[in-house]
Inverse folding.
């Protein structure tokens, strides 16, 4: 048996092209609308299920467990780092000027989370953060 | 759904009133013919028809395959086959690639390439155009006829480097 692998891409016939994809506009939806309007007022909007009491962040319209409509609430729980990663290259593989820390921020006793750029402080899982800028992704500082 | 849907249909001007996410996908792709097909297509550029042989069952795959369907093992070697063969099947198509009706039918068929014989045939046969008229398809005289590839002058490494297979006997 033999596997005469050519291996090199140069020796293979390859077609490279770009698909003509149009720009699209996506509405954030009923719950997204509440959430993003909240962000503009420096608030984190979540939603509470009236049946099981679970709080979703960001807000969503229905509880996935109870299939009932939720109520929008402002979340004032402590924000903490659930997990983080450090990226050195952008999505095209170009080296970044300086490494970027991306963290998943969760809020106490809630379900879900938001992505954030950590710009200040010593990053560590479980540590509390302060939200510096309310946008997507959030800009946070480790307390 | 028994509940009243909460969604609202949006008009063009409504889009300006709500929060939106705008994105233009950069859908770039790279598609490779792979090891076997690349060798085959580049062979056509050199006026060569290249197959791949499985030494266990003796089959020659044209177009080549790196794996034998029958034996569940990698095929063993590259082999060059002749640009001559016999017509196994032939059909006249009055429908174009884009499903439009065409006046002059395209004659296509499967050719069993040499050096295979009826018992040991180059598997699974090459599907290509056959330079023949509609009449010879209708009267079924083409079956079993010996054909030879008509090569194009300018070859680029494509299945279209062969213009068609022409009856030689």
């Amino acid at each position: 048996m033999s596997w005469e692998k050519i291996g090199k891409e140069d020796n293979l016939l390859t077609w490279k092209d770009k698909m003509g994809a149009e720009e699209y506009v996506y509405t954030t939806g009923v719950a997204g609308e509440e959430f993003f309007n909240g962000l503009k007022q420096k608030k984190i909007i979540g939603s509470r299920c009236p049946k099981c009491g679970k709080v979703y962040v960001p807000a969503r319209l229905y509880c996935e467990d109870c299939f009932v409509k939720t109520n929008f609430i402002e979340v004032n729980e402590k924000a903490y780092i659930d997990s983080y990663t450090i990226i050195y290259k952008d999505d095209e593989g170009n080296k970044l000027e300086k490494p970027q820390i991306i963290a998943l921020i969760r809020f106490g006793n809630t379900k879900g989370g938001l992505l954030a750029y950590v710009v200040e402080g010593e990053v560590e899982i479980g540590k509390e953060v302060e939200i510096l800028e309310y946008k997507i992704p959030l800009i946070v500082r480790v307390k | 759904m028994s509940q009243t849907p909460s969604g609202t249909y949006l008009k063009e001007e409504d889009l300006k009133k709500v929060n939106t996410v705008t994105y233009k996908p950069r859908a770039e792709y790279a598609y490779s013919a792979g090891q076997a097909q690349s060798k085959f297509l580049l062979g056509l550029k050199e006026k060569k028809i290249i197959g791949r042989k499985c030494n266990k069952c003796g089959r020659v795959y044209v177009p080549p395959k790196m794996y034998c369907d029958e034996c569940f093992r990698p095929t063993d070697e590259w082999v060059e086959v002749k640009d001559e063969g016999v017509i196994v099947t032939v059909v006249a198509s009055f429908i174009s690639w884009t499903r439009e009706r065409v006046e002059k039918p395209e004659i296509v068929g499967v050719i069993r390439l040499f050096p295979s014989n009826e018992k040991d045939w180059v598997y699974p046969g090459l599907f290509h155009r056959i330079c023949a008229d509609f009449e010879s398809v209708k009267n079924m005289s083409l079956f079993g006829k010996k054909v030879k590839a008509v090569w194009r002058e300018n070859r680029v490494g494509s299945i279209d480097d062969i213009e068609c297979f022409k009856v030689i006997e």
About this structure: Chain B has one domain: 32-167. The first helix of chain B runs from residue 34 to 45. The mean pLDDT of chain B is 89.
